[in-house]
Amino acid sequence: MDQSSHLKVIAAGFTIIRTDDQPSPRIKVKDSSRHEWSTLRKFETKAARDREYKELLKLSMVIND
Questions:
Q1: N or C, which end of the chain is more exposed by having fewer CB within 10 Å?
Q2: pTM of the predicted model over 0.85
Q3: Number of domains observed in the structure of the chain
Q4: Helix (DSSP H) and strand (DSSP E) numbers for the chain
Q5: CA 7, 11, 16: angle at the middle one, nearest 5?
Q6: Closest listed residue to residue 36, CA positions, set 59, 7, 5, 65
Q7: Residue 40 · residue 29 · CB < 8 Å
Q8: Domain limits at 58?
């Protein structure tokens, strides 16, 4: 998804999330208050991050990039 598409879905009320491993396991987010990628939360392990990511994706207005 490109930047223009991100802005369209954010304007429709969605939150976009993605995982990242550098510098540590974390979940990054774009939403109506943050149009650039920012860290939502850092984790000690990738497994913990992946569990949280899976739970976030169950929310109706959260999508992955």
A1: N
A2: yes
A3: 1
A4: 2, 4
A5: 60
A6: 7
A7: yes
A8: 3-64
